[in-house]
Fold this protein.
Amino acid sequence: MYQEIPTTIFQQEASMDTLVLAKEAALGKMQATLGKMQTPDEEMSAKMPAKQALHMTGCNMDLVDEALPEVEQDSEDNEPGLALLFKWNDIDMPVFLDAVNAPASGGNLVPPFWMKTLPPNVSFTSLTNDLFEQLKPNAADDRVAPGWIAPNTIEEYGAILAALREVEADPFIQAAMAAMPLDNCLAETYHVTLSHHIHPNDRHAPPPPLRRVFL
């Protein structure tokens, strides 16, 4: 039962003041309580460290103005050879790496044997270093990750393209590619001819349902 409101004006004013103060105190207590409360997502966000952004500045060089002069400089005059250049997809690379490093990225799939740095520690640098070692083993002087592999004889170049196909078909890599938009690839590849002209490789797409990793 509510108490009867006093009938005199002074008593009414005093009662109203008391009610206002009581409401303000209750509101302050409620705000303090709400300030301490967090949703499960907010609590998880507070406990998890801030996700580091993937810095890919400088991962792609201008093919004609920057990469080609350095490839030419690396190639000996008496054996210019063929060069394989990479232009990485810096938009989807973070998505790909997140999928690679996810606890259940490939279910029961095992990372490829050439991946020396394993999930959850795979980075753009470790991925490209390990990949380039797989594409042309024991030839550190010919590898400039993540940019190019040069110089190469025709036989070496053919072996690199064959190794790219094996990397592309790996089930673990294909599982990570599923996180990216369907028509996107991880990198475009180009070759530099003996006359130092840059051409897209125009590699054949793997048979369905495999995703194209390298264009």
